Amino acid sequence: MNNDIFPCLWHNEDAKEAAEFYCKVFNGTVTADTPVVMNIELFGQKLMLLNGGPQFERNASISFMVLCETEDEVQNYWNQLSNGGIVLMDLGEYPWSKKYGWVRDQFGTTWQLYLGEKQGEQKLIPTLMYIHENNGRAMEAMELYTEIFPNSKIGGVLKYGESVGDENHEVPENVQHAHFEIDGYSFFCMDNSYDHKFDFNEGISIVIMTDDQEETDHLWNSLTQNGGRESMCGWLKDPFGVSWQIVPKKLIQLMNDSDQEKAHKVVQAMMKMQKIVIKDLELAYMS
């Protein structure tokens, strides 16, 4: 499983509380505990929680599918996540699963609990919902992502088809559910024509840890072209509005240097950047 790719959840001062809650629910562990960043591991997968402030709220445009192996497992997670949360789809039997439910937990992150087949080793799968002007573009998004990243592929794609389409005002050719991988990391996605009151935002972003400047440049340039947008400190939005953080491993190494003054200079340099430029970080470190 690729732990150089992982989701980041934007929090307003409750990242630690949320991190401890998720570790309790899913039997995970806290791997980094700082005032700004909490890293946790759930089912061997990395998840980052960032105390970024009140600007962004997480919403259901990106939810987390948890592939469960028994009905008891689904029920156990459901009981904890729905406590103080909001039920989006009742826990029950559906055509696609004997036991399934969709819930927004007390911290505002949404989970789809699903009794069904695992996709390889990965148990927790970020699920992207293409809505509003992106509705009907899930296939295009998968094609873009799998073209940009190495070791990528589109897996099973289920379209709405005539019967479901009519009933729910969905377009028959649109994607009801699909699986794709980027560099060995699994995602699900879907088109949805409902007029939700939310859309992709910085509340949930996808972090990519890069090995060098070449990889950083390639991902940055590929994801920002054709309607994407550059933001600050390694953040960008792709043409669909999904937020990504392209983070060279060297940045983390320099920021965590034991020499506090040098580490601080690196952070100051990074704060002024859009795309992260490794050689400029190194210059700041040496200055």
UniProtKB/TrEMBL annotation:
SUPFAM superfamilies: Glyoxalase/Bleomycin resistance protein/Dihydroxybiphenyl dioxygenase. It comes from the Bacteria. Gene3D superfamilies: 2,3-Dihydroxybiphenyl 1,2-Dioxygenase, domain 1 (3.10.180.10), 3.30.720.100, 3.30.720.110. Pfam families: 3-dmu-9_3-mt. Residues 4-113, 122-247 form the PhnB-like domain. This is VOC family protein.
